[in-house]
């Protein structure tokens, strides 16, 4: 059975790549300091898949290329409810704490910096967020990704919390579901 690899490469070209952070880092050696760059890249297909990658190199373009490759290898499928998330979630990574809350259609992405980049690359279009604790860009991005990975379908989360599915639905969905 022959596989057609062209389909896969075309799929990869449709990914949304976002550069979150560029940092110049130094390694102290015998003759002084050796400088290099660390970049943080988010890659997503705007349909519920997102990945985070870190690239390190002596030059910025090479670091971006490495970060993008790592992000593509580390893609995660997330659960979406239309253009928002199915339920509220809180995630922590290091000192960064991120709160993600579903929003009604038309709200937009109410988020800042790395949280916005991760959510938009994942395909979330209506969400309310708050970043607390550390403002470290890398940890905030990882906390956001951890929160998105922990999302479950609304019905599954309702059972887990011991509530009815309607009680966990956002208010704009409850009205539509009741009819």
TrEMBL record:
SUPFAM superfamilies noted in UniProt: dsRNA-binding domain-like, Ribosomal protein S5 domain 2-like
GO cellular component terms, semicolon-separated: cytoplasm; small ribosomal subunit
Molecular function as annotated in GO: rRNA binding; structural constituent of ribosome
Residue ranges of every copy of the S5 DRBM domain listed in the record: 15-78
Record InterPro entries: Ribosomal_Su5_D2-typ_SF, Ribosomal_uS5, Ribosomal_uS5_bac-type, Ribosomal_uS5_C, Ribosomal_uS5_N, Ribosomal_uS5_N_CS, Ribsml_uS5_D2-typ_fold_subgr
Key words of the record: Ribonucleoprotein, Ribosomal protein, RNA-binding, rRNA-binding
GO biological processes: ribosome biogenesis; translation
Top-rank taxon, per record: Bacteria
HAMAP family xrefs: Ribosomal_uS5_B
Family as reported in the entry's similarity comment: Belongs to the universal ribosomal protein uS5 family.
PANTHER family xref list: MITOCHONDRIAL RIBOSOMAL PROTEIN S5 (PTHR48277:SF1)
Subunit description: Part of the 30S ribosomal subunit. Contacts proteins S4 and S8.
Swiss-Prot/TrEMBL domain comment: The N-terminal domain interacts with the head of the 30S subunit; the C-terminal domain interacts with the body and contacts protein S4. The interaction surface between S4 and S5 is involved in control of translational fidelity.
Function: With S4 and S12 plays an important role in translational accuracy.
Protein name from the UniProt record: Small ribosomal subunit protein uS5
Organism of this sequence: uncultured Chloroflexi bacterium Rifle_16ft_4_minimus_450
Highest classification ranks of the organism: Bacteria, Bacillati, Chloroflexota, environmental samples
């Amino acid at each position: 059975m022959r596989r057609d690899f062209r389909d896969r490469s075309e799929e990869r070209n449709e990914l949304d790549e976002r550069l979150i952070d560029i940092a110049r880092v130094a390694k102290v050696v015998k003759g002084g300091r050796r400088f290099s760059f660390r970049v943080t890249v988010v890659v997503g297909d705007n349909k519920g898949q997102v990945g985070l990658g870190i690239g390190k190199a002596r030059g910025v373009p090479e670091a971006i290329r490495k970060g993008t490759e790592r992000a593509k290898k580390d893609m995660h499928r997330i659960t979406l409810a239309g253009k928002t998330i199915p339920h509220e979630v809180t995630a922590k990574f290091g000192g960064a704490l991120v709160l993600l809350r579903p929003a009604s259609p038309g709200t937009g992405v109410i988020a800042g910096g790395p949280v916005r980049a991760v959510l938009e690359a994942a395909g979330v279009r209506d969400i309310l967020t708050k970043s607390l604790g550390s403002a470290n860009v890398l940890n905030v991005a990882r906390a956001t990704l951890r929160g998105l990975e922990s999302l479950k379908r609304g019905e599954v989360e309702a059972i887990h919390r011991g509530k009815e599915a309607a009680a966990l639905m956002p208010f704009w969905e409850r009205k539509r579901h009741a009819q």
